[in-house]
Amino acid sequence: SLAVDYIARDESNPYFTYDPAQCIVCSRCVRACEEVQGTFALTIEGRGFESRMVAGMSEDFITSECVSCGACVQACPTDALREKTVLEKGMPERSAVTTCAYCGVGCSFKAEVKGDEVIRMLPYKDGKANHGHSCVKGRFAYGYATHKDRILSPMIREKISDPWREVSWEEAIAHTAKEFRRIQYQYGRTAIGGITSSRCTNEETYLVQKLVRQGFRNNNVDTCARVCHSPTGYGLGQTYGTSAGTQDFDSVEFTDVAVIIGANPVSAHPVFASRLKKRLRQGAKLIVLDPRRTEMVKSAHIEA
Ligand code: SF4
Ligand code: SF4
Known about the structure:
The chain is of the alpha+beta class. The chain has 11 helices and 15 strands.
């Protein structure tokens, strides 16, 4: 009977719901999990009219191997798998293309917005690094955009013991420019410089070096990504003659042997790990040099 066949919605995942009643058993989610993400968390269970998509060993999404990358939600043509924000707040009204700043993969996204609120982060199909895929961080961990602790207006204080004073952008920029000029006048042209965060995009880092070189008229510019990557930079410089990456991410599709030294892309650069795993499943070989036994050493259909 219908009462016996009814399967409750799976609300266990914090970011999306699974409603088996809306599943048309198209297998798109299963294929996205296998072919794009490489986690193999989903399957089709049962036969004929009884068949349906299940996570893990027919368990809740949250207790299965699912890593919440969201590729299945994106692939689902019905509302069987759907972002909770879309169900709660409705469809987005407009979108803007942006870059995820969580890690160095630099995935492109369409930030889909309703009013002033982000409803959904959709990995951008034309993104050079991700080609429409993402990990849990870029797709779902955007709550910081509206977090109550986020500072939205510039603040100034004359001394460290003074309380912060909220000011307009015009006043903040004028004050900063005046102070930069005063310090340079008093202590010399090289007394100031700029350092960008590893959360900045290449374009933002480019703009800061432009400001330093043309505005401050010195070469005191750095990025914290270089500081973190001093050993990598030195090693690459010694080996390949340049202290920077010599390949783009697409080149992994043509690799025959990959060597991973002291990195764990499954957690640190997940979208790259998915792209590498795809190539490994096609037969490329993997060598891992690491004191840890990372997830790259052995996972579904892959062994280093
Ligand atoms: S993609 Fe959606 S409709 Fe298709 S099998 Fe998966 S849950 Fe069902
Ligand atoms: S791999 Fe994840 S954290 Fe890194 S840029 Fe892409 S979505 Fe962001």
